[in-house]
Write a structure and sequence with these properties.
This protein is of the alpha+beta class. It has ten helices and twelve strands. Helices cover 55% and strands 16% of the residues.
């Protein structure tokens, strides 16, 4: 069934539903018409019984009241026929028990056939001056009417069902036409033409909402591919500089005889560029894993005071070398369940960013706030330019085109924070400079 085209399936379902409806309507109409005919039948018998009774009371005979499909007779309670229409040939229509019942009240009876005619009949027996008057009529016209109605249903029903099926097929085609138009357009869209959109019908229905959803999906795919292309281009550009420097140092070292001091200087420079390449590769690997949902964490209860002090100790030598200081304000920091190594990496990137782009002393704070824990790194530099803050945590973003660094540090911070279901932010500090933070749920 699932391999049948949806248009055929809709038509078959519609046809089946209409067949059930037509059958139900036909049965209802047939039953209603039969009931109405029976009521009319009984009404005519009552009127005829009254007329024949009046005729008999005035000395008339029932012999003159019969027709080809009506009859009448008068019988005594013991079953003897006193008077009857000619086609009955004097035969009794009712049994003794039926006559006894009819002698007390008007009663309807049914017979499968009557003498002289091979037809079913409907009879009404009424008491009449100590005797019983029986009037009746055959059900030929009644049965003919129902037979004609049944034939009309048997002939007209299939024709109507066929016409409805054709209409259902055309209606299903019209309903699926916008989807077919989307399919044709989708088959024409390639990786280089994702900016094209699927046609959306103007009606606000399920099909238009499907088209809108698919167009939104295409936009997300286009944005994702654009980010991926930009990421690859930026990564290639970022890797090109240390590779070119490394190649130049090695070529210069091999070009002519060099002193031991010159060779050592070249090797040190090459080692520095190699270390830079290694850091960039590690950062790119983290971002790639996070993009694929493969950045695994090892959460454990962690004393944030100890974590912050560990990060400060890592930068003490650098701070002394540059004539700056790194202080910690984390006495009220709670214990949080985090991946300690990843969080140290993220906080270290913030401190490194403050050394690179900030000025003056650097302060690290940690504390709980409304069910979250916040780690702040503040400096006394110029801070982030307002137009750069919303892009600060994007890969390869720099405040100035010629800024130093790979532009991956803050992106790594955001990736680690999001892996912990947290957020990051940057603002201008109270005393000037940058205030960059990580907010994690407790």
């Amino acid at each position: 069934m699932s391999r049948i085209p949806i248009r055929i399936r809709l038509t078959l379902f519609f046809t089946l539903a209409m067949a059930v409806v037509l059958a139900a309507v036909g049965a209802f109409v047939y039953t209603r018409v039969a009931s109405d005919l029976d009521r009319a039948f009984d009404k005519d018998l009552r009127a005829r019984a009254q007329a024949v009774s009046a005729l008999v009371r005035h000395g008339g005979s029932v012999r003159t009241t019969g027709t080809t499909d009506t009859f009448a007779e008068i019988a005594t309670p013991d079953g003897r026929v006193v008077d009857a229409t000619p086609q009955l040939r004097g035969a009794a229509l009712l049994s003794a028990s039926q006559l006894a019942e009819a002698a007390t009240r008007p009663t309807f009876f049914h017979r499968s056939s009557i003498p002289g005619q091979d037809e079913a009949a409907r009879m009404l027996a009424v008491p009449l001056s100590g005797r019983v008057l029986v009037v009746g009529t055959t059900r030929e016209h009644h049965n003919d009417t129902l037979t004609s109605l049944q034939a009309a249903f048997l002939v007209g029903g299939p024709v109507a069902l066929l016409l409805m099926s054709i209409g259902g097929y055309l209606l299903a085609g019209a309903a699926l036409r916008p989807i077919e138009a989307m399919r044709r357009r989708a088959s024409e869209i390639s990786m280089s033409s994702l900016d094209e959109h699927l046609p959306v019908p103007p009606a606000d229905d399920e099909v238009s909402r499907l088209g809108t959803t698919l167009n939104a999906m295409l936009e997300r795919i286009e944005d994702g591919l654009a980010r991926e292309r930009r990421f690859v281009a930026d990564a290639s550009h970022e890797l090109r500089t240390p590779l070119a420097t490394l190649q130049a140092e090695l070529e210069l070292a091999l070009r002519r005889s060099r002193t031991t001091q010159e060779l050592e200087s070249s090797i040190r420079s090459a080692a520095a560029e190699t270390d830079r390449l290694s850091r960039i590769a590690d950062d790119l690997l983290i971002l790639a894993r996070a993009e694929q949902g493969m950045l695994r964490l090892r959460p454990e209860p962690t004393d944030l005071v100890d974590l912050v002090k560990t990060v400060r100790a890592r930068f003490e030598a650098r701070a002394e070398l540059e004539g700056r200081s790194v202080t910690v304000d984390a006495n009220e920091a709670p214990v949080a369940t985090v991946d300690r190594l990843r969080l140290e990496q993220a906080l270290g990137n913030l401190v490194d960013n403050a050394f690179r782009h900030g000025q003056g002393p650097i302060r690290i704070t940690a504390g709980g706030h409304n069910g979250t824990v916040e780690l702040h790194v503040l400096d006394h530099g110029l801070g982030f330019p307002p137009e750069f803050r919303e892009h600060a945590f994007e890969p390869f973003s720099r405040a100035t085109p010629s800024g130093e660094g790979s532009g991956l540090g803050l992106a790594i911070v955001q990736t680690i924070a999001q892996a912990h279901d947290g957020t990051v932010g940057a603002a201008l500090g109270r005393d000037g400079g940058a205030d960059v933070w990580i907010r994690l749920p407790l």
